Amino acid sequence: MTVTATPRPTGHPGYSETLPREPESAAVARKLVSTALAAWGLEDLIDDATLVITELVSNAADHSRLDSIRVIISRPTENRIRLGVVDRSRVIPLMRTDSNGDQIRGRGLVIVNSVTDRWGTDLYRWGKQVWGELRSGKAS
Predict the structure, then answer these.
(1) What residues does 73 pair with on adjacent strands?
(2) Contact 83, 131 (CB under 8 A)
(3) Are strands 118-123 and 80-87 parallel, antiparallel or unpaired?
C-alpha cells in the first residue's frame, strides 16, 4: 500500500487514512506518521510517535466493533502533533495499573501515557477517538 498525503503546516486533520481493523494496519499507520512528521520537519518525534500510533492501532484492532479504523495525524501548533485512532466502539479504554503478570499484551496505554505529553478519549455518538499529543523540542 502506498501512503500519500498533502502536507499542511497546521490543521485538522493533516493526514488521515481509513485502515482495516487488524494488527497489521499498525505498519501502514507508522508509515503515515513518519511521512507526516518528515513533511513537517519534525523528525525528532518519529520514534515516539510511531510507538504511540502502534499502541493506539493495536488497542483499536483488539477492542473495536467494525471492520475499519481511521488514523489521524494533525498539527495543532507548530511544535505539537496529535495522533488519533477513531473506531466505532464507545467503550472508553482504561490504562492498566496492575502488573498484568507475565503477559506481554495489555500495557499499551501505559506506554502511551509515558511517551506522550497528554492523551485522552473523545466520545462521539457513534464511537470514539483515542489520541495522544507529542511536543517537539524544535520549531520549524
Answers:
(1) 15, 83
(2) yes
(3) unpaired
Distance CA 123, CA 25 (A): 22
- Residue 83 C-alpha from the chain's centroid: 4
pLDDT at 35: 95
Determine the Cα angle at 93 with ends 92 and 97, to 5°: 135
The x, y and z cell numbers of residue 105, run together, are 499484551
In CATH, the number for domain 13-135 is: 3.30.565.10
pLDDT at residue 101 greater than cutoff 90: no
Residue that wins the pLDDT comparison between 23 and 13 = 23
Q: How confident is the model at residue 1 (pLDDT cuts 50, 70, 90)?
A: low
Beta bridge partners of 74: 82
Ranges assigned E (strand) in 32-98: 68-77, 80-87
Residue 91: name the closest of 37, 136, 127, 140 by CA: 127
Query: CA-CA distance, 22 to 64, in Å (whole number)?
Result: 10
Q: Are 36 and 73 in contact (CB under 8 A)?
A: yes
**pLDDT computed for residue 93 by the predictor:** 85
